[in-house]
Amino acid sequence: MNNFIKKAEALKPILQKRVVTASGRYGAIQKNQREIYDLGNHFVGHAVISVYADSGVVDAPAFLEFIFAETMEDFDFNDLPDNSNISAAWIQKEYVHLDKIPATIKLPRRYACRYISIRALASSASYVLGIRNVKFIEETSAFGDIIPCGNTEQEREIDRISIRTLRNCMQSVFEDGPKRDRRLWLGDLRLQALTNYATFKNFELVKRCLYLFAGTADKDGRINGYVFHTPKVYAPTVRMFDYSLLFIPTLWEYYKASNDIETLQELAPLAVRQLELAQVNFDKNHRIFESPNLGWCFIDWQESLDKTSCGQAVYIYAAKYACKICRALGRDFSWIEREIELKSKAGLTAFYDESKNLFVGKNGQISYALNVWFCLAGVFGPKKNQTILKALQNEKKAIFPTTPYMYHYYVDALYRSGAATEAKRTILTYWGGMAKCGTDTFFEVYNPSNPQENPYGSMALISRCHAWSCTPAYFFRTESDTKSDESCLEY
Q1: Closest CA to 384 of 348, 411, 341
Q2: Does residue 54 sit in helix, strand or coil?
Q3: Could you give the angle at the alpha carbon of 84 between the alpha carbons of 79 and 90, nearest 5°?
């Protein structure tokens, strides 16, 4: 185990636990009868169920079905799909035989849910099974209660849901989704960390995650896109161009929030290394190009999206944060400044269409992703960026984001360009749309024009509590800040 992993494991949190009792109908349950119990909010943890024999002699086992649902709608999508591109084993559905009754059982798996369905599949004619109580042991590393923020009830409701989303994803690491995947992804981590700094302020959990990424870098020093933290720390070699670069702003923002100069000093070389490793993905004219070295450039869940072009802007964006790191540590960053200049000029030449006031990608594609990332990269100033974002809104053929992840960066670009009113309106429309669904936590994917859209081929596997959707709680607490220090327009 290398030193970085040792440091990460030393920071492993002790999870806070509390018991929640579900509401619902207790008592006798007949064969094939289903009862649904409500925890009153979305929680992550373990279920404990007590059953008894209502009458008669227990001469045979009881056979029960349990379904754990994040929303009531999930009960419509709990069958094993035959057309999914990820494992159906993530579905929160269990079958249990009880040989001894009465009994109190703690189901071994951890669940993310609000609703628990119990159905009696079989028992015996000699007795009637009864449900005595349904309890849930919540687990989280988010300590304390956060007072909802906002000027209206809608804003406060969105804030409450955002905080609950973050809280439930804060486990032994910042998980991307507590129902499915349960991994530490760098793109999710950055947005969770920003929201955490404004709410729970668990700096040690962010530090642990930074060291997990550092400790699982490949032999060349490349940060992987995600890390498994259980049953052992492991990161498959998955090259993610944009996520690796986002290690740089994530480290800088941790330092700014925590003042932990020792961690900044120790991890700075690895952060800057991401820029060096990215060089092979640019041609002699400093324009990014597709190659096996590029790996996966995520950007958003959009198969048709020209993601490679977006990578040009992500590089510039990350490089400006690298300058901040080097300046804070008194290290030379003249070569990074030169990189910013060359990549910015190349990006403008390759992608900016002055007649449209828009950045245009491969095959003439116009997308929110490309224009947002170039606005964030700061190749133009705030006023020009505002013009670009307005032109984008009027472009009928523009490809919209489909995830709260990309919507976060769109809102961020609006705020940084001075369009605070439009930024707030976007939050209230997009995240407000999810809130109207009656959810307790925000989703992994949400397309207002197609709520059933998902990248997995089955709604049964979509995450209804997903880390990257928590950032309204960050924006509500920082929107009055000019962000001058954090602006990528100056470094």
Answers
A1: 348
A2: strand
A3: 60
| The predicted structure's pLDDT at residue 292 | 82
- SS3 call for 89: helix
What pLDDT was estimated at residue 482? Answer: 44
Residue 252 and residue 246: Cα distance in Å, rounded?
10
Cα–Cα distances (Å) from 108 to 50, 92, 96, in that order, read: 15, 12, 11
Give the pLDDT confidence score for residue 484 in this predicted structure: 41
Q: Per-10-residue mean pLDDT for the chain, 491 residues long?
A: 92 97 96 96 98 90 96 82 80 95 96 98 92 98 94 97 98 97 96 98 98 96 95 88 98 98 98 97 96 89 95 98 98 98 98 97 97 98 97 96 97 97 98 95 94 83 94 93 51 66
Burial class (CB within 10 angstroms; exposed 0-12, middle 13-18, buried 19+) of 60: middle
Angle at 423 between CA 420 and CA 428, to 5 degrees: 125
Residue 299 φ/ψ region, left for φ over 0, alpha for ψ in the -120 to 50 degree band, beta for the rest: left
For helices 334-351 and 368-377, the axis angle rounded to 10 degrees is: 150
Q: Tokens at residue 353, please?
A: 């269409």
Q: How many CA atoms lie within 13 A of 78 on its CB side?
A: 18
Can you give the pLDDT at residue 294?
A: 85
- Characterize the bridge pairing of strands 34-56 and 103-106: antiparallel
Phi, psi dihedral angles at 282 (to 5 degrees) = -120, 140
B/e letters for 466-488, b = 16+ CB within 10 Å, e = fewer, are bbbbbbbbbbbbbeeeeeeebeb
Burial of 410 (0-12, 13-18, 19+ CB in 10 A): buried
Measured between its terminal Cα atoms, the distance across the chain in Å is: 36
Residue 209 is encoded by which pair of tokens? 């995650």
Count the neighbouring beta carbons within 10 Å of the beta carbon of residue 217: 20
Nearest to 25 by CA among 137, 136, 132, 135: 132
The C-alpha atoms of residue 21 and residue 288 are separated, in whole angstroms, by 55
Q: Which is nearest to 459 in space by CA: 98, 14, 188, 83?
A: 83
Closest to 379 (Cα-Cα) out of 343, 406, 355: 343
Distance set, CA 380 to CA 333, 364, 374 (Å)? 21, 21, 8
Report the predicted TM-score, pTM, of the whole model to 2 decimal places. 0.96
